[in-house]
Hints:
Elements: E1 2-3, E2 9-10, E3 14-17, H1 27-42, E4 46-51, H2 63-73, E5 83-84, H3 89-101, E6 105-108, E7 136-139, E8 146-150, E9 154-158, H4 160-163, E10 168-170, H5 178-188, E11 193-197, H6 204-213, E12 220-224, E13 227-228, H7 249-259, H8 270-280, E14 291-292
Parallel strand pairs: 3-4, 4-5, 11-12, 13-14
Antiparallel strand pairs: 1-2, 6-7, 7-10, 8-9
Amino acid sequence: MSSSTDGTLTGQYVGRFAPSPTGPLHFGSLVTALASFLDARHHDGRWLLRIEDLDPPRESPDAPARIMSQLDAHGLHWDGDVLFQSQQLSAYDLNLTHLRERGLTFPCKCSRKSIRGVYPGTCRSRHFENTDPPYAERLLTRGPPVGFDDLILGRHTFQADKDFGDFIVRRKDGLTAYQLAVVVDDEFQGVTHVVRGSDLLTSTPMQVVLARLLHFRTPQYAHIPVVLGSTGDKLSKQTHAPPVEETSALSTLRLALQVLGQPESPGTSVESLLSDAITSWDITRVPRSSFLM
Length: 293
C-alpha cells in the first residue's frame, strides 16, 4: 500500500461496513452496506465488516448476530474475520497517549448543556496533572482549513474553529470517542475507501485531522444520501424504522439499487442480481439528494 501526494491511500481497494450494534439493520443502513459492498467488489477489492460496539448502554446483545444474518441473507458476504471495536481498546489507549504526550489533548470539565454550537475552548488552559477526574479529553484543533474530495458530493472544506472546534476523543465516562476509534481502526484494517451515509459528512474533517496528527493515511471518502421516512426524518432506530427481513432480500435489494440510481437487473436470485450490480456499478449515478420512502 502506498500514499498519493495528498496522503490518501492507493493500492488494493479495501472497503468496510461498520454498524453500531444498537439493533438490526433497517433499510437505510442496508442501502449504505450495499453501496459500500458494490464499490469494493466492482474494484476487485476486499470488503470488511466491523462492529462498533463501544457504547454498551446503547447496545443490544443480539444485534451483532442479527446484523450478520441480514447481510448474509442479502448476499453481502464480507472478507476475513469480523472486527469488534471492544477488542481494540489497547490500540485506542496507545494512540491517545501519543496525542497526549505531544500536548495535543487537554482535559475538559464542561457539561454538554454548557456548550452551544462549536466548542469555545473553555478548558484549553487546563492540564492533566492538576485536573481531577471525571473529565472528557479533547483534541486541540488548530491550523489551516481541512479539505477533502468526496466521490459523490465533491470538494468540501472545513475550518476547525468555525465548523467543529476542539472535539472529544475520550468521553467523561472513560469510553473512547467515535472519531478516534474509527480512525485507529481504519488504519489498522488498511481501509482505503469509506462509503457511508451523508449524515457522517461532518465527522470526516475531524477524522482527517486525527489521521494526519497520528501520521496515518487518509481514506478516500464517498457519502451517499440518507434514506428518509414518510415524515421526512432519516430512517433510524431512533425513529423506529423496521428491520429489513431476510425473507424478502431480492425485492429489498432491487429497491436499494433504485435508491442508489443504479440500472435495473433482470436477475431472479440474490446472487445473479448482485453479480449484475457489481458489473454495472457506477458511483457517479448515486444521487446527491436524500431519497424519500
